[in-house]
Amino acid sequence: MPNSSTLSVPACTDTPRHLAIIMDGNGRWATKRFLPRTAGHMRGVQAVRRVVEACGRRGVEYLTLFAFSSENWRRPKEEVSLLMRLFMQTLEKQVGKLEEQGVRLRIVGDLSPFEPRLQALIRAAEERTAHNSTLNLTIAANYGGRWDILQAMRKLLAAQPGLASQPDAIDEAQLAQYLSMAYAPEPDLFIRTGGEQRISNFLIWQLAYTELYFSDDYWPDFGAKNIDAAFEWYRTRERRFGRTSAQVASQT
Ligand code: IPE
Ligand code: IPE
Ligand code: MG
User: Fold this and answer.
1) Could you tell me if residue 245 is inside a domain?
2) Disulfide engineering: 134 pairs with which of 92, 102, 146, 151, CB 3.0-4.6 Å?
3) 171 carries an active-site annotation
4) Mean pLDDT per 10-residue segment, the chain (252 residues)
5) Residue 132: which CATH number?
């Protein structure tokens, strides 16, 4: 599998090919302004638009945004239903714009608990943008990294039932081809806004060798300038993938 950082050393470019973001801090952004948390989520949608545009302009090939985790169902019922409504509205309103910008949209996660109308909107948006290739935008919705690994294992065993009695024959590459983002290289850069420094069950398999950047800014305040700051920091990183500094220096 060409995309695995543990099997081969990927080429590194000045701009990350794949940027993955945990968009955090919507609630605190709103609370600080004495607004309901939902106001923060609504403002967060504007930040998504800014960041998609900035990434497109900077030549990012894959942008993956964590919108709703498999653990976010634990939130108050009203907040979950606002998030679902916002997701639907945004899909309805923004797909035309994505289409104009040459963005291909994919949604990853366990979509089965979503209401049928949302599932239909997701399918329609994916189909409508399927021919685009400027920027591959993935929204992770009801996504969990552990769920992803488990569903990949189930799919692998369903496709090759004989492997169940030969577990030693299963390798990384075989499993990885069933992960929900098998179409993308692993993220080069991960950003989490909102000040927390944790992965919160995002792309746990794929982040094995990703550079991790944490910003104290709340997601609704995030935009092109913050993306530039993160990319500048990324350029200062020496991505060794297990090798020594001298080895990295001598390869160029
Ligand atoms: C991220 O912002 C958006 C979602 C998880 C849907 P939060 O809602 O987690 O905001 P904080 O962390 O409570 O400030
Ligand atoms: C992670 O944010 C999920 C998304 C941004 C969608 P959370 O705010 O839910 O993460 P925790 O619970 O603080 O780790
Ligand atoms: Mg949060």
Assistant:
1) yes
2) 102
3) no
4) 81 95 98 98 98 98 98 97 96 95 97 96 97 97 98 98 96 97 98 98 98 98 98 97 95 74
5) 3.40.1180.10
